[in-house]
Amino acid sequence: MMRNLVKGAVSGVLATAAMSAVMLAGDRAGLMGEHPPKRIARAALPGPKHRPKTGEGVLGTVAHFGFGAACGALFAVVVDDRRPRLPLGVVYGLSIWAVSYQGWVPGLGILPPIHRDRPERQTVMAAAHTVYGTALVLALNRLHRDARI
């Protein structure tokens, strides 16, 4: 189990990097507005939830990669030593998006739910989570394969 946790966390970090590239591309295209991880970090820091704070960008990035690693570790433990297929990764990534951006993020008053947020931001976020799930499966399967050699 510990091996799967580590492989999943490493895969989750790699998948978060790929996902972040999609988010940055969306930002450069003018589709994102403020990045959700930064807004989540802002809300977690002391002071008014919606006022910019020192360190929110760095904390947002660290938290984003930590959350990605944790989600990757959970996925790896659930699939165990089986080689998951790409559709499962896509469903997993989109499930994280839905639970986060339709659930706990608006529940904490950080961002509006998906249907009330900027459509272009949520389109980028759905694509980014699809990339996360795809990259997670590819990285995890590669680590499983390399461990067998």
Q: Can you walk me through this structure?
A:
There is one protein chain. The longest helix is centred in the last third of the chain and has 30 residues, at 119-148. With 149 residues, the chain is mainly alpha-helical. It is built from five helices and no strands. The mean pLDDT is 94. It is globular and about 50 Å long.
Q: What is this structure, in a nutshell?
A:
With 149 residues, the protein is mainly alpha-helical.
Structural descriptors:
149 residues; mainly alpha; 5 helices
**Helicity, in percent?**
over 70%
Query: How many beta-strand elements?
Result: 0
- Uncertain spans, ≥5 residues at pLDDT below 50? none
Terminal Cα separation, in Å?
A: 19 Å
List the helices and strands and how they pair.
Layout: H1 2-28, H2 36-44, H3 56-79, H4 86-107, H5 119-148
Helix pairs in contact: 1-3, 1-5, 2-3, 4-5
